[in-house]
Amino acid sequence: MSKVIKNGTIVTADRQWKADVLIEGETIAEIGENLEGDEVIDATDAYVIPGGIDPHTHLEMPFMGTTAAETFESGTFAAAAGGTTMLVDFCLPGEDGLLAAIDDWDRKSRDQICTDISYHMAITGWSEKIFDEMETVVKERGINTFKHFMAYKGALMVEDDEMFASFRRCAELGALPLVHAENGDVVAALQEKYIAEGITGPEGHAYSRPPEVEGEAANRAIMIADAAGTPLYIVHVSCEQAHEAIRRARQKGMRVYGEPLIQHLTLDESEYFDKDWQYAARRVMSPPFRSKTHQDGLWAGLASGSLQVVATDHAAFSDEQKRMGVGDFTRIPNGTGGLEERMAMLWTKGVETGRLTPEEFVAVTSTNIAKILNIYPMKGGINVGGHADVVVWDPSIHRTVSVTNQKSIIDYNVFEGMELKAAPRYTLSRGEIIWAHGQNSQPRPGRGKFVKRPAFASAHQALSKWKALNTPRKIERDPMNIPAGV
Ligand code: URP
Ligand code: ZN
Ligand code: ZN
Ligand code: ZN
Questions:
Q1: What is the pLDDT, as a whole number, of residue 103?
Q2: How far is residue 129 CA from its own chain's centroid?
Q3: pTM, entire model
């Protein structure tokens, strides 16, 4: 059974044009005019775009004494309804190591996912076992990204020497290190200070994580990556200080990528000063929301190319879970949601305002991250031979965000009340319609697949070549030119 998407305007990261898309099985078979198929999917007055890829989620993640309430089933359903056809979740190792953690994540996700997924593996300490297992993670399990938390002292945080060792291992294996950039020592000290001063509410969370704390860590991670000879990806870039570090590094020729979140682009720090404790606590995440000036910088970075990817960091905790931090903001589970809203929010606040072109929208929601993760052109584009992960994107469908009609199982939405000025008319994952506007049917849990990602993306290969040519070398000297030692 073939399908043909007709009468739409295809938008990719580099152009727009009118053409039909013929899908056979799971892949795109042909792009052209007047194509015929067994089933016609109408894209009149709509765009035909690559399915979104959200490279930053935490579904069912054990964290801060509880477990993120969004499941792989509800999370991937929310993704599909919002036009996202693949997400990359963070796999956190326990005492049994990296491979056992992947097995655990597989057990949780396998029967639940309705979109494709992959994992980033977190490195939360350093040992010979971790060094050895990293090779299997990359070569056998198909995971080419390793995440390092520079914050969450006493829990997930790694020290600089551990990070350097892991980055060097990434360089050898052709894997990409990711960092959560915040100076965990300073955050811990500031948390203590504000609690001692009696600032125990959610505003204390924002005060204890100022932009300088993020900028310092971003600079430090960039230096460590350069010394280790690896590209670097900085997650949830929220402020000018971190963005500036990335810009400076890129101008020097370093391969550093930056990922702002849809939340940081659209919500600001005033949320933490709300008189309603629960309202403010729902928005507690790290790094915290920032001022409008920082937001303007992030938008400019997306347009100019110094920032490449928009993610969600979807880590959704219920109201009850957030209340673990009543009287002590350091105990509020960190995280907010956005899987269903990411694409439409970015369109509304970006394309509809003229801050982004439709092509830039496609680049930062799908194509750029597919290239960074080394799965392009299989994912992230409208390419013959590539997966038919395609969205018929309709700017005439408007909706107001409401907890009453969202797919997330969390009891609130941080974008509540905002009007979204686009939505998927259809979301297709590997050729199958998994969401159709107005039909409200749920895709089959378990239909999604785990996507293996090969090591040595081309940026990695280029950097390895450059580093090999420029590595420090011993200078050979005629013994006659070496004076006798004392
Ligand atoms: O607050 C956040 N971002 N929670 C999820 C874990 C992380 O730091 O990414
Ligand atoms: Zn983080
Ligand atoms: Zn995260
Ligand atoms: Zn409207």
A1: 98
A2: 27
A3: 0.97
Q: 3-state SS string over 146-174?
A: EEEECCCCCCCECCHHHHHHHHHHHHHHC
Distance between CA atoms of residues 218 and 203, nearest Å: 23
Kindly state if the Cβ of 336 falls inside 6 Å of ligand 1: no
Closest CA to 166 of 207, 138, 202, 208: 138
Q: Helix and strand tally (H, E) in the chain?
A: 16, 21
Cβ atoms within 10 Å, residue 266? 21
Q: Which two tokens stand for residue 452?
A: 């293996």
β-strand pairing of 145-149 with 116-122:
parallel
Q: What domains sit in the chain, N to C, each tagged with a CATH number?
A: 47-464 (3.20.20.140)
ipTM at complex level: 0.96
DSSP code of 384? Answer: T
Q: How many CA atoms lie within 13 A of 88 on its CB side?
A: 31
Across the strands, what pairs with 390?
50, 428
CA distance 292 to 270: 10
* Cβ neighbours for 317, distance < 8 A, ≥ 6 positions apart: 66, 68, 69, 333, 335, 410
DSSP state, residue 69: S
3-state DSSP assignment of residue 271: helix
CA angle in degrees (0–180, nearest 5) for 16-312-459: 65
- Number of the ligand 1 atom closest to the C-alpha atom of 149: 8
Residue to mutate, 236, 312, 410, ligand 1, most ligand atoms under 8 Å from C-beta: 236
Nearest CA to ligand 1 atom 4: 335
Residue 432 bridge partners (DSSP):
429
Which ligand 1 atom lies nearest to the CA of residue 315? Answer: 5
pLDDT digits (tens, 9 = 90+) for 164-200: 999 999 999 999 999 999 999 999 999 999 999 999 9
**Calpha distance 340→329 (Å, rounded):** 27
Q: From the CB of residue 319, how many other CB atoms can be counted at a distance below 10 Å? A: 13
**What sections of 290-335 are H helices per DSSP?**
292-304, 319-322
| Site of tokens 């200070």 | 193
* Adjacency order of strands within the sheet including 20-24: 27-32, 20-24, 2-6, 39-42
Ligand 1 pocket: which of 56, 57, 58, 88 to mutate (most atoms within 8 A of CB): 58
- In single-letter form, the type of residue at position 374 comes to N
Q: How far apart are CA 380 and CA 302, in angstroms?
A: 17
Tell which phi-psi region holds residue 282, choosing left (phi > 0), alpha (psi between -120 and 50) or beta: alpha
pLDDT at residue 486 tops 90: no
Place of tokens 């969401």: 435
